[in-house]
Amino acid sequence: MKNPKPYFSIITATYNRAEYISTTLDSVLNQTFTNWEIIIVDDGSTDNTGEVLKEYLYDARINYYLRPETYQKGLPGSRNYGIDISNGECILFIDDDDIVHPQLLELCNEELSRRDIDFCRYLRTTFTGNFDEEFNLEKDYAVSKFNIDKLEFMITNVIPFNSCQIAWKKSSFNGERFNESLMYAEEWEFYTRILTSGLKGVTIEKVLFFGRKHSASNTGEYQRDIPVRKNSYIKAHLLIIENLAKRRLLSANLIKYFIRKGFLLKSNSILNHILFYSGFSRSKRRLYKLGFKIYPLLKPIFYIKSKI
Questions:
Q1: Cβ neighbours of 38 (radius 10 Å)
Q2: Partner of 202 at 20 to 30 A CA spacing, among 243, 269, 275, 289?
């Protein structure tokens, strides 16, 4: 019989991960805090992922669904479906190839239950190949606060907000969902959007999440310049710029950041977008646009100069 009121709803979107998903589920089953459900949403796997998952359905907390056609194919659509059918007070996203620390839910529960906060962030590290990490079970860790005054650090990745390193109170979403047209950086856009409403949280300064690195991941595909990932990354920039401008949160540092990203990504659309909202004079905007055109010629000079 399924628990109608789990404290945590863990949402795992999966696609052709028969090789890895059992280690992910084993790490969830090893949690010291047991009041949870996991919602696994299959995005149309063509391997034997479904057969692997059937071996785990003996546990009533584990739920396996196929993504309905009313949600777009891809990670955002699968996660949105998981959010919409979840029963928990809090939500975490755990990818189908990662591993979580056995105390992850226990420590997040302690912080979320005793503080007036909307989310609990924790530290994340990565691994390749076989996982052979020894878990640190000590509870002696620092906790730092995250308020909207630190939003700039999240956007610029000074404070990483990977999709799987935050436990959110479901109320934080307030009806907002992942943009299903994004196939990369969807969590960056989504988390920025909800954080601009003034959400408050804390960071547990302890590694509680272990992300697996491999070439078939979304990040791996982006690094190989797969067009759908790169185009999505550019679109995420445009959406974030618009949202920050609407909420009057585009600081001078963020304007500089997005200008640099336009140059680095060779994206005229990012540059034009941020200049439109920058408040710069017409002559200054023209100067940046001219710089963008000649940047490919100047870049080798800048590189040589940096090495001298």
A1: 24
A2: 243
